Target: Uroporphyrinogen decarboxylase
Amino acid sequence: SENQSPAGNQQTAAYDSAFLKACRREPVPHTPVWFMRQAGRSLPEYLKVREGIPMLESCMRPDLVAEITLQPVRRHGVDAAIYFSDIVVPLKAIGIDLDIKPGVGPVVEQPIRSRADLARLRDLTPDDVSYVTEAMGILTGELGATPLIGFAGAPFTLASYLVEGGPSRNHEHTKALMYGDPQLWADLLDRLAEITTAFLKVQIEAGASAVQLFDSWVGALAPVDYRRSVLPASRKVFDAVEGLGVPRIHFGVGTGELLGPLGEAGADVVGVDWRVPLDEAARRVGPGKALQGNLDPAVLFAPTAAVEAKTDEILDAAAGLEGHVFNLGHGVLPTTDADALTRLVEYVHTRTAR
Ligand code: 1CP
Model:
């Protein structure tokens, strides 16, 4: 429908939400809050609906995706929903032989390491992920004025899983390819930029009101290598989804030294982990961008008074920013007390009410 087209997105019910206003650096009634990995972690209602259903299969069932996406919105009163999926879903959708193993993460049967392997990364079409379009259709109806965040993995982080064959601490095969065969590396990241762009466009077309690019592991790189070998591909993604009426968020972990170049990649909002205070992060990112973050997810295991004291520090550091979206500095940890998250949402809303 016209309402779900990119051009029509500005007319959707979520346009005036605190979250989208903060992303656009407009005045807000309160600081908006959502949590990375808020969907599909330890919530009892999540574990119940997932029982006996493998992760990737659950990502392809629109009714289940919609239910899991809505659960943290109902329970915590967060200011945005994040679509329940995983960064490797579009790779599975184009036929890469991968699985998400419980307690491990994404595992790729045959890693991508040669020029011949590149041919396995074909284009992604909307038909490959029709379940995403269907689930987002359900969700935009159910969510009303609550924005829905779509997402994708950034080229570097996707490349890391494809080249290593699974989760990696040191990214040694990935870096060997990046330094050893710069042309193959550039072609690989270019391919992944195209797949990621196509996947984000499907989500925007289906009604996502913002998109986040997860470059979770990019903090493993020095700025010089990020600029030369990764930034061009990430910028290509952001450029391709510019002007569609949806804010673009860029997130990575351990990116203190990379905040400047991350800002140059083109997002409207830059996610910051807990290692750099937001006022300092704003200086590094440069003007014209909102920031998202940055409570250490481990702080939620401390008593409420300590959580509130750390939250105060963040809100004070954010006081001079043009746009601030409160979030954790990385995803919710699996054993986090759900009530601590609910209390945190309420605390930020109350403390920042204008
Ligand atoms: O945020 C949400 O609540 C939506 C759901 C979501 C998102 C945004 C999932 C569900 N995965 C992701 C993104 C994702 N997946 C990222 C980027 C965000 C981050 O840095 O946390 C990454 C790196 C992955 C890869 C991945 N998938 C891992 C990490 C492995 C590693 O390298 O350490 C894992 C464990 C998964 C599996 C996964 N993804 C999501 C869930 C609920 C699960 C667990 C599924 C299960 O085993 O049942």
